[in-house]
Amino acid sequence: MSKSKYMMSGGLAFAESKDMEKLRQQSLKGWHVKKLSFMGYTLVKGEKKEYIYSIDYRTVEENEEEEYLSYFEDAGWNHVFSEAGIHLFRADPGTEPIYSDKETLAQKHEESLSNTARWGIGALVLFAVSSWTGTIFTTGMIANILTIVAVILTIIAIPAVWTAIKIQSNKWKVQGKQRSVFFINTIIILFLATLTIFLFYGSGPNDAIKTLAYMLIGAFVLPIFIWSILSFYHKILGR
């Protein structure tokens, strides 16, 4: 029998609590998380023992790491792994949660997307929009080059923006700002509906705009499709 296996993640920005619950259930079966993997986690076989799990998002300098980990260990949370500012801890059932009030929970979601990342996403969107605008007002080789650049930037920008929106939505939920959550969800739905109508019933948009519309719609469908295929693949293999 294999001593390690893979577990799919629903995406920390989208299904963090579900991931933590799945890890708890796996620990009851003797499978304990060891590290992050592509779109999931690597689990190793061990003793059947129930653990609860919690994630912290924080950029920790090397000279701060020992103090940072000691803080959680003193509270009963043992460090499992750290990667790219994501820190996973586990503890025995009944241990006081790492985040126990709205203020600290909101801060957690705030920390999950750094200011550098926010500026980076903003710049990415700006460059993508500028590139697409350039394809509309240029022709020939320049238009072709701009189209290639725009496609690449858009492929990167869409999931980044989607994740950032979800993180902000999570923060608003914790703060009880349900109207803000409803508003942003409504905007996304209306945006997708408008794109779909424009794509199929628009009066002759040029190729650049059509390509952009296809990519925007596909960006929401493709991750779900990939997740479904990988999930099915690992279930079939029993990994």
UniProtKB/TrEMBL annotation:
<feature type="transmembrane region" description="Helical">
    <location>
        <begin position="117"/>
        <end position="135"/>
    </location>
</feature>
<keyword id="KW-1133">Transmembrane helix</keyword>
<dbReference type="InterPro" id="IPR021359">
    <property type="entry name" value="DUF2812"/>
</dbReference>
<keyword id="KW-0472">Membrane</keyword>
<dbReference type="Pfam" id="PF11193">
    <property type="entry name" value="DUF2812"/>
</dbReference>
<protein>
    <recommendedName>
        <fullName>DUF2812 domain-containing protein</fullName>
    </recommendedName>
</protein>
<feature type="transmembrane region" description="Helical">
    <location>
        <begin position="213"/>
        <end position="233"/>
    </location>
</feature>
<feature type="transmembrane region" description="Helical">
    <location>
        <begin position="141"/>
        <end position="162"/>
    </location>
</feature>
<feature type="transmembrane region" description="Helical">
    <location>
        <begin position="182"/>
        <end position="201"/>
    </location>
</feature>
<keyword id="KW-0812">Transmembrane</keyword>
